[in-house]
Amino acid sequence: MTTWLARKRVAIGLALAVITLFLARPTWTTWQLGLLVAAVGQAVRVWAAGHLEKSREVTRSGPYRWSRHPLYVGSTIMAAGIIIASRSAMVAVLATIYMVTTLTAAIRSEEAFLTRAFGETYDRYRESRAEPMERRFSLARAMRNREYRAAAGLAAGFALLALKVSGYL
Description:
The protein contains six helices and no strands. The chain is an all-alpha fold and 169 residues long. α2 packs antiparallel against α6 and α3 packs antiparallel against α4. The longest helix has 38 residues. The radius of gyration is 17 Å and the shape is elongated. The relative contact order is 0.19.
């Protein structure tokens, strides 16, 4: 079940986005506050993606110095922004269930992979015994990690919520 949830989290998230749009009751105030919070989450994700060399190493620069999963920290902040913008208790419940179940599954799956692939190096990192690495943020690296997809999805979601606030949806 863990592997399935980890693999299907994007598809499940898209289905939840449709449900969120249906259940949302945003106002301009909640939309603006939610957008601000979600933008902070997206910024965290871009920062992390600009340091990450997926499947090539145990990244220890940028936000990876303080968190093993900064992309998921950013996603969680983004989800909080969407919850605020939607102004719906049901969206809050569904989004919380989604985030807890899918991110837990993804973390377990990724940590198992990293342990297999990098062994002692990942163990030292997980136990906060690894030395941080010096690496500058790279927008090109963030693009290679396809972070633009999360940004585009967030922008589309908030555009649809804006249409809902305006009465067009």
